[in-house]
Fold these 3 entries.
Entry 1:
Amino acid sequence: QRVLLLVASDVDALCACKILQALFQCDHVQYTLVPVSGWQELETAFLEHKDQFKYFVLINCGANVDLLEILQPEEDTFFFVCDSHRPINVVNIYNDTQIKLLVKQDDDLDVPAYDDIFRDEEEEEEESENESDGSEPSEKRRRYEEDVIERTMRRRQRREWEARRREILFDYEQYEYHGTSSAMVMFDLAWIMSKDLNDMLWWAIVGLTDQWIQDKITQMKYVTDIGILQRHVSRHNHRNEDEENSLSIDCMRIAFEYDLRLALYQHWSLYESLCNTSYTSASLKLWSVQGQKRLQEFLADMGLPLKQVKQKFHSMDMSLKENLREMIEESANKFGMKDLRIQTFSIHFGFKNRFSASDIVYATASLMENIEKEGPETTNFIKALDSLSRGNLDKLHQGLDLAKKQLCAIQQTVASCICTNLVISQGPFLYCSLMEGTPDVKLFSKPVSLCLLSKYLLKSFVCSTKNKRCKLLPLVMAAPMDVEQGTVIMVGIPPETESSDKKKFLQSAFSEEKAADSTNSRTLHNHFDMSIIELKTEDRSKFLDALISLLS
């Protein structure tokens, strides 16, 4: 039996896909891989292949909508869904014949009880129509009156039940958030089957790191999952350091470490990494002259000469590099950057190849959303998938170069948005719109890049504003999507608060499309993330007005 793999376009999905491909190779399972970037592509792929395939595996797509209603499959078609999007649609949860959900057992789903949201059809049909004609008229009337009362009661109960059902479902579906990374779920599967390899473990680590970089999970969840993976890492990578057992230098090994929260610094210069990491740039307010001064003071405090800081990291003096992390952390604490140290993993293979998990995430994401056209749509997806394999270092390095360009573009855009006051408060949320003709605006027509930009912008804005209320508001960001078709892409980002809840407030407003319905805006919910929406440029202001009145 051949299997059709439908894989969403995000790094976590790619990692889960690599693990599953490796498992399929172990068992000689034949499969076809189809990348899907949104609901439309998913439906098209299903329609094209539904006659040849009976088994479909969906990675990071499909859990948060009613699959059977959208795809209308035959009775003998089966879906295996491994998706980190929450909340999972209730029909998918309670349909155990055709839809099999792959979730970790300790994932808290908070699903409403079956009886609260589903009623059997038969109950409703039992309107009693069994009146006998042979009895007295008075008898008939009495029975008829009882009947009416009973029916009225039943209708009232049904109305109450329906009202409660709406309330329960609203509470359940109100917020969008993310569960355990799909790559980790797949790795768990491999581990249970005793087929886990070090490569699979590394992909699980990259999948988790992707969730953390994209801000999809809380710090708490990240640290917990790192702990789970750390046990696997020590199981796979422990070495007896005596002469006989020392491994050849080409072998791959994974190590847990406390690293600096600086993007790509080992493949860049320390200076550029400090300038283009959202955490340091927002804390030091680098878009202002004052901020640039603070950066110089910060470097002086560490005692690092500018000449050293501005050259490639691997060309820096060894004497400086040895206790660089401690030096940076110590100075960072003085400058109010207390969270510069994070728990992560790094991978070594060969003599000089050392990458941290976040390097791989940035590189893979940039390859996937590369805007330079090189052949068909799927080229970028395949490239990104390949860059995750150890053998394709050239692709990985190409991804790292693209990622540096992307981070610089994000940082420049954030600076110009803040310096030209493009972030405006719309009442219940902040709003920022990128105009056509802004530098690098093409890059931000892609969902992952736009979300990263929005998160960086919100972080920086919260650091720069004096307004206390603005610090608690979510952000809605719009960017031109397709100039010829006149569409914009909009994304909603939850407030940048210290609380640990990473839930999206916009889910109910966006996905109910109340805002769209009330204004007849032509919207398209093509993305698997419900907080991303596409609409016609001329409908944008109508949509915003509706969103404001909905959320006020």
Entry 2:
Amino acid sequence: MGGTYGAKIIAQALHDLGVKVIFGTPGLPVTDIAQEGLYLGIRFISFRNEQAAAYAATAYGYLSGRPGVCISVGGPGAFHVFAGVPHAMANSFPLLVLSGAAETHNSGKGAFQDVDQVALMAPHAKLSVRPPSADVIPKFINDAYRAACFGRPGPAYVDLPANLILGTFDVPRNQLKRITSPPKSAAPEGKIREIVQALKSAKAPFIVLGKGAAFARAERQINQLVQSTGLPFVPSPMGKGIVPDSSPNNYSAARSTAFKEADVVLVLGARLNWILSFGLPPKWNGNAKIIQVDIDPNELGKNGGHPELSVVGDVGVVVDQINSALDGWQWQGQSTAFFKNLQAAKSRNEAKAAKKAAVQKVPVTYERAYEIIKKKLDELSNPKDGGIVYVSEGANAMDIARSMFTMEHPRTRLDAGTYATMGVGLGYAIASYAAYNFPGAEGLAGKQGSRKKIVAIEGDSAFGFSGMEVETMARYSMDILIFIMNNSGLYRGDTDNAESWEERRKNTVEGTTTDGKGLTAWSLGYQTKYEKIAEMAGGKGLTAWSLGYQTKYEKIAEMAGGIGLVARTPEELAHATGVGFKAKVPVVVNVIIDPQADLPMDFSWLDMAPPKQDKAKL
């Protein structure tokens, strides 16, 4: 019987569009999509869980500039992969998800894994569609792929009924043309003149760099802007490296001072969301003119953004326009109170950080551990070459790492992002390896033509979300180096010794914790009296944030054929870092750090408490 296999039609469409890598978890009915892709030369990375695969595809989209592609089975698989869809939308990562679905003739009858996946995805995707017949499958995939990368990047979804995947169809070959890069738009010249005038007349001008600028690959234009004007800047967490962190104009260590005192702020490729405290008081100067340059018109004027000065356009193109209009202008504000305050805050905060990193105790602190890791990695790979890609997730593990590991190139740092998603770390690490080290690599960062070492810095809680993906790394010979910051808990541990922890576990198992004063749940410190923290943690059982005491995470690497190491002292950590960097297999370094059982869980950067209201006068 003639005809073309449905899975082959799908794989051909992806191949036509230039897809080089597919991420996913195989199973009926989508396994043959992956296999047909392999026949066409498309790499398939098979994950242990669809969530990790989806997260990997989002990161690949960010690093490559083209939609990352993820496939999954229907029903539960679609729900698992769904986690990556709002994550991609929140971060503006281009993503194409293809999920199997119940066959069209049985849909709605209670068929195998039958659920309305198009409706599930629609509110969170730029496009969610289901081809009615085999002949239009290429068109639907093409439309979804285009939707994912044109305009503000984001996720798109194609629902693929089992009968269309597994059937054979007498349809003509519909060869798709490869979609070129989206057109880049400029801002009106009149608006550019207004922006330039605002910058020139400002007493305290400032620049904020977001990951949208990194995605747009606008580093050349932005470096020219910073170097020619001398304007101070702060990068967002994933905007680090657009301008090298070593730049004297980088005031990351004075971020709070900059936000409070700047009167004109140029925000390039970053949204005024929680990461930037919305651009609103009390964190920001309420009289500041915050000028947004964004690809999405819906972002302009939002929260603290200036509705009239902000412009829609490609960051690189618009910054080129600004550079031309500035015509060599340089900021002469080095004698201003604003600049002096920035310098003072930067020096003060860097001194505090250096003091924390120098603390000599065992188990080591986060800061001390990161200082040791960074020093060793910098010896092995010159930061100026951009030879290391850092992936970081967790709470303290990620937040502290953000300030301690500096980036000299864009797209060499990934973290939980706008959606603050836990579980992305190992998927991101795999995607980074694929984007930078596979033949025909689509990622672009640092010294070209050289492979990159992928380093994942994981909180012990965050690692638990996707720890089995270490086996995925081993299966595909990915020499990824993973540090697990093991404090035996979320945010902090319960105790600093095994005996006390075992007693707590015994009481928890036996249910004898109700007479204690320990927390029953934790709401991110809302109205918590932190000065009472030692008293509140005085219960007899494990707290809500407890994990196993010094769990032997390194064993998961050994299980998969990699190398597992334990580091309890500075010397052991430095040695493990060197071994892990040079190894040709995945390495997990279990870093035993101070559990900080008495640490107040204070995330002052996260404004979850309601605004204070003035009490009415009687």
Entry 3:
Amino acid sequence: MNVSVFLAIALVPFVQSAITEISLPLDVHQCFEQELARSNISMTIGEVIFSKCVHKTLWVQPTVRQPTTSIGNDARDWISGLVQMDLHYFDTFPGANPKTHSRHRRQSSFSGGFPAGRRGNGDRPADGSFPSDGRMDGRLPTGQRSERQHSSPDRGLSGQFLSDMGLDGQIPSNFGLDGQLPADRRADGTMPSGRRMEGQLPADRRDERLPSNRRQTLRRQPRVRKEYRMLTDRERQLFHRAVNMLKTDTSVYPNKFDALARLHYMSIGRSHYGPNFLPWHRLFLVVMENALREKIPSVTIPYWDSTLDDGLLDFRSSIIWTPEFLGEANGYVENGPFASWNTQTGPLIRYFGSGGTVMNWTYIYNVLRQDHLENITDPYALPENNLELQHTQVHRWVGGHMAPPALAAFDPVFYLLHSYVDLLWEIFRGLQKRRGIDPTTDYPRNITEIPDGQRYDDPSGFGSLLNRHGLSNVFTDNIYKYDRPPSCTIQNPDCGSDYLRCDTSGSQPKCVSASIFDIKPIFLSSGLPAAGGSGIREFRRKRDTHHNTKGNNSDIMEMVNRASDFQCQSNNINEKYVNTYNIDGIMDKQNWVYIPTRVVYTNINANRTQSSMETVYDICKRGNSNIPNRIFTETNGINYVGMFKEISHFPNDISTSSALAAVGVRRPTANSPSDILVTAYDECGNICQPYCLDSSRTKRRKCPGAIRITADTPQMYGIDNSNALNRIWREDINGLPYVDESEIFITLVCDRSTSYWPW
């Protein structure tokens, strides 16, 4: 470093500060302890536990009381109208009549808090019955619950279902998405209709208890949700157009799309980290879908089956992140249907591949093996069986606004992800019926362990509907259905879309997303593409499409034809994470300052493939030597709502190396210090061990990573990234530059083969 650099550093106006270690907040500490105490550590990924506890305690609690996220009367009235569109269906729900609730109750439920005195209770279900095991709280005894979650049930038909399902993750052709048996096993010998979810009552019972003026309404054909890549070009364009029409409709403040995103933001407490996660989001999807259909009546919310991307060597190369689909996901969204979107929390940002992972059938199988809703959701589900935790990893993988659940609904990708989660829940509900379990009353009732706002009879936040209405069958009986996920066979290697390929390289054929890196493949004697290429260019010319594919595909084909110009895998590394700079719901870069950290990375077994038994993401178990050595250092506010992430890159051929990284925190003031939790993790989900400076400022000791930054001396942060790193350099008497380690309060030690538990 030359003299001019040091002169420049000396002229920068430094801010005075001090950093000290603090204890983890009690609720954060208890969350970590509870998860580690009841989890099978050998099956738990460190980043999964970290993200759950951080967002459950540091994000959920503050967001429900932030005044900046409330919605106005205009938006509340509009959303109430969207709920009213389907309210009449609930006249048939056992023991419930939503119309008996007052208008005052309906309006107060949109406040983002929980109405005074409205708490769940442990009473029996509305139909007067008790749970099958006789327990008042509706739960299995503790011992049975743990055994059930770890075992694969062999009673009923669930065992047959699991044995029938192939390891490639495809749903077998003899499994109906309505949860019913195939024709040769049904009592009446009937088959599901086409490839759609059915689950309807028999015709002679469908109109029971319905007034005559309702029967014609309920015979209306349910709308159909398809996989995003299975839409025709025209259908996809209409969906994009409807979303943008909501975004530009300012008849409610700030616009209709963001009004619904704000509703999700302020409803985190009643919709996440509890059993109401699935019912609440089912209601929310219907409300959004009704809003879209106000603009274009034929539109439904497609689902993003990210297991189709799991078959790619690099998930980031999926064709859905191209301008014809969802647009780019490598920073500010500047192309595609949602290009240059602005939100109240800043410009729309994504940053894929910076944590988390996509859905895969290893974890989905774990969910489908369970019997009850409490076995797949908080607070009772084990991490490996928890559907919400699995979906959270996709949020973190997309990054940007999608990473923290509170901001996620500002990105349209949110709705496609949750549509797929809802599909998985519907499959689970179908399996429950086969096992003799009624999904409309299957809900844990222990009022002491269920979070406020998530109890069976608590208000849902949607008009006069209660949480239990989200369990009703009327959704997939009367309102919408799902097309089955795409599949293929050796005999019929067509996935039904130009944007999917049939991968025949494994033991069973499966559909995989087309990739922007696909090149013209080598074709086998069977006429199928060999592993490694999708054959999308050749296939588009040859296939006899089963649907109309109108429209101009020049953009997408140009990207495919330029595939040879791209570099993939370890050479396609994100250099810097693009942050939202959001604090308490407001984006302002001036509210951020930066502290220097050191990341030490150990990769002694650099060429070793991680064992299938290790607690890492599946992509790290596949022998992929191209996985980049990246460490993600993350800060989360303890006394504010906000996160910041930075990426450090390490060479593959050096066993131990280190790097400096500056991470953002809220700017402290004289009256308000900033308390933060600093952590780091690698591509595989391994958590790093933090080390903090002791009081002598000469030694380091293990710490959980919780620190406090004040506006006192000595100065230990910079006003921007460069300032934070430049200021820690010194010169000795011989002019040799060196790093003043006493200026780096926290060091994070990461090991490719180990996940630490610093909490």
